[in-house]
Design brief:
The chain is 3% helix and 37% strand. The N and C termini lie far apart (72 Å). A seven-stranded mixed sheet has the order 9-8-3-4-7-1-10, with no helix packed on it. The chain has a three-stranded mixed sheet with strand order 5-2-6, with no helix packed on it. The protein has one helix and ten strands.
């Protein structure tokens, strides 16, 4: 490797470097890789919600999509146009959107349940799965 340093007096300095020994690999290690598709890795379920005439609403982080058969819970990832408890959002008539983790591939129906320590949690039972995983519900 040749390195050139230029100074005001135009003096050239070649650093003292030793040649590195070459490494030879005679065997290729067997590496097993798993290829994941975007579909299997980045799944989510979107639920657009309308609350009718309610004055205000909020969502608790303890809201899940619960798969029929397995009981597996898809967690709430984020929400749009609605506050997380204890804050409240005034109903502007536009509804709100909930984004959940993806459902299992074998899931054909599920429930949306807000599991909270008081009455009045959001609940929609027996939602039939569709191929887009985008749903419209009315509470």
């Amino acid at each position: 490797m040749f390195v050139r340093y230029v100074y005001i007096l135009d003096i050239y300095i070649i650093p003292d470097t030793k040649p590195q020994p070459m490494i030879e690999i005679t065997e290729k290690p067997e590496v097993e890789t798993e290829i994941k598709t975007l579909e299997s890795e980045e799944r989510q379920t979107i639920v657009h919600c309308n609350c009718g005439e309610d004055y205000a609403f909020r969502i608790w982080p303890s809201t899940f999509l619960i798969e029929h058969g397995t009981g597996k819970r898809a967690k709430l990832i984020t929400a749009f146009n609605i506050s997380f408890a204890p804050q409240w959002t005034l109903n502007d008539g536009k509804g709100f959107t909930l984004i959940f983790e993806g459902l299992s591939k074998g899931c054909t129906s599920f429930d949306l349940k807000e599991i909270i320590p008081q009455d009045g949690g959001f609940e929609i039972l027996n939602i039939q799965r569709n191929n887009m995983d985008v749903y419209q519900v009315r509470f």
